[in-house]
Write a sequence for this structure.
């Protein structure tokens, strides 16, 4: 198998507050629908370009996903950073130019680090 043929098509995070997580990730530009599979919990799902981004409730016995870091290419790092800060984000690295282009890192309300880079 060639590495060029591998594509990440699913990311799942867990949140203590689905409404707060939905507000934060909606500020990023994602649109969510609420789903439940069988007897599973209600969760959020956003589908775009063959990729699914899901947010499940963090139950007491479930392992936290807060050490997960997710990256998004966005049209404007500065505007998206400001939107995420207004939606409850915490600055980890403010927007600045780097060897990878314009970049910023924001922590979501559950502690997941979200890396923003310019398209």
């Amino acid at each position: 198998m060639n590495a060029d043929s591998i594509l990440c098509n699913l990311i799942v995070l867990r949140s203590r507050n689905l409404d707060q997580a939905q507000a934060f990730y909606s500020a990023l530009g994602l649109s969510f629908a609420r789903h439940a599979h069988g007897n599973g919990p209600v969760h959020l799902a956003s589908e775009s370009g063959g990729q699914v981004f899901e947010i499940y409730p963090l139950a007491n016995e479930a392992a936290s996903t807060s050490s997960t870091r997710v990256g998004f290419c966005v049209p404007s790092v500065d505007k998206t950073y400001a939107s995420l800060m207004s939606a409850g984000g915490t600055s980890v690295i403010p927007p600045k130019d780097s060897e990878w282009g314009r970049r910023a890192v924001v922590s979501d309300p559950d502690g997941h680090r979200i890396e923003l880079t310019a398209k």
